[in-house]
Design brief:
The structure holds two protein chains of two kinds. By secondary structure, chain A is mainly α. Chain A is 74% helix and 0% strand. Chain B has two domains: 194 residues, no CATH class; 163 residues, 2-Layer Sandwich (GMP Synthetase, Chain A, domain 3). Classes of the chains: A mainly alpha, B alpha/beta. Chains A and B meet through helix 6 and helix 12 of A and helix 8 and helix 11 of B.
Amino acid sequence: MKRFEYADEKISDKQILVAVPSFVIGIGILSLPQNIASVTTASDGWIPLLIGGVITVLITWSVAKLSASFPNQTFINYASTIVTRPIAIVLTLLFSILSTSITSLQVRQIADIAKHYLLKETPVEIISFTFLLLIIYAVAGSRIGLFRLNTMFLPFVLFVAVIVIVFNIQWFDPAFLLPTFETSFSGHIEGIKNSVLSYAGFTILWFYITIVKEPKKTPKMAAIGMCIPVVLYIFLYLTCILVFGNSVTSNLQYPTIELAKILEIPGGILERFESLFFVIWIMAIFNTTAMTFDIAVLALHSIFANTGKIKLIFIIGPIVYVTGMYPQDLVQVSIFGSFIGYSSVLYTVFVALLLFTIAKIRRVK
Amino acid sequence: MKRFLSILSCFTLLLLTGCWDELPIDERGFVIGSALDMADKNTEGTYDITLTSQFVIAGNLSNPTQDGGEDQAAFKNISATGQSSFQLSREMLGLINLIPNYEHLKILIVSSDIAREPNLFSSVVDGFIRDHEMRRGIKVMVSEGDAKDVLNIQTETEPLPSRFIDKIMENSVKSLELIEPVRIGQLHRYLLDEDSYTLPLLTLSEDNVKYEGVAVFDGKSDHQVGTISGDDLKGFRLIKGNISNGMLLFHIDGQLMIYEMNAAKSSIKINADNPDNVKISISIDTEGAIAEMFGSRSLLDQAYMDKIEKQIAEKIEQIVTHTVEIAQQELEIDFFGFSNILREKHYDDWKKMKDDWDHGDKLFTQSTVDVSANAIVRTIGSSDKAKDKGME
């Protein structure tokens, strides 16, 4: 059996525009309104979401800019030119470890949610195992294939999100928006922190911009792509507030799923919309997880160039599974989740600053 | 090696069939209504609760017996007693051959015995809010007397009692003496915000059920403190505003007349500068038609019309003022949502007095409520008068 190979392993900058939101939109938004509502008053959460969004777009743009100034060079290559090869290897290895942990977290979380809402009797281990197998199948194929999947899935994901918002308009109560601007300063800071964590998706830029054919406009495309989840998240958050009110939103585990649950398409055509919502959202989560797994492989592959890709996948796969199954309960999963979230944001900022400063000092072009 | 791998992958398929959650639809018992009753109050402060679930028997629902044979009921009510509603729903497995499925649950009736017990109500409905199978659209109501009897009523028009009550709740919007259905999602918010609120109240008479009046709940101590009905409930609805249908009885020159409201809006302004004397002014605007009149005076007379409109406005003011008096003096509970308006529009003042609003110092009972109403009669119906000369 011969696998179909695409002509070249190159993508256009439009595909980066699609990849960024596909990567960011995933499990985070299902619980994000709760995180935001619990630290803000009434509908004030849009402020931290917006500020967090602007911060994220800026980071995205600068990472893309840095990466695009070394066209067609892999991360390890240009990092070596800037900070010498041993340090570059360490940086890449850390990226690989980070991506592996993100993958295991995703695999675990999707299994938890699927078990809670859909498959009550099926063990978490089995749900994650099947999901992981699917991810491995996707990653083992061509990388360009992943990007095409992104382009195919993203419209569905955005469409179902818009449906959730539009058909909930009948339940809107504008009184829930009041009082405005009463959140304390520390509440805003906490909110910004939560929102930045949920937007975090810069890791892919370090590695995927290197395969963009002409990366001139890529920073702009990445920034525009980053705006999509920011806008979507703000709207979904406001919908939650308008439908449930602040107090209920901050007490629901997955407010966004609850939104899908109360939705009834008029005329009784579809009374259980959440089943459709789940199908589509799992597609979104699949994209996110497949890309993180791919980056873990890609990063490792750039260090051990002689080892085959498939071999690396089968080394990382079991690690992902075991790490994902390690946390015992919901609290441990969320501790693991916030740890991963923090490290991914801080690490990206750290690497960006490091490379940028040293490149400036050593005048590397 | 290749062959080994392909055999291995075939065997993996066996593991991946996902048959854990398989449950054929004819083995599921769809519950469409639940009732909670107080069974026993134990001495150590715990309660025994009876959960009654109404299972649909789908076969009898779609094929009514036509040959005059005995009617098969389209539902089966199962009761179980214990301490938690979730435990009870599991206990039902031993009482019926079907696996209960609550995804289509439409109504939840709580008996007023439970509702009147302080700090119990939210605990018994918790399971219904928490369980992922339950939807947030379940309508919640209180029943005077045993809730499980409500699920047993016989009606000719609808084979399922739960659906009968569900429909009654939907239609209630047409009357001014009933409130819109309260869904469990809303109830969740009332409980979290500690707002005082109202729930529809069902009364059982003979084997028929009647929906008249509402049960008033105290948000803080979480129990039913009273009921209101009739004109007082009209006043409550008028304060809440947002009415699209309703009628009002009034007298003019000793003659009865009926005003049919097509729209009523209320606007509430609160002045909270002085917490010991919060000034609440309610202004109500209604529009409507004359639906029925006794007597024979022509309505096509501007002066008479003005008098009628004034009379209606006065009647509204009188009704609303009385409702407020009941709330302030009898129940001492703000169930109109004034506290929400304070929180939304006067957040700084609210923060200071939120513990003393309808508790503690009971600032609500000391507040001054001022009601003004304005009524417009748009049409008088298709005929001016039914009789030419009255018995003047």
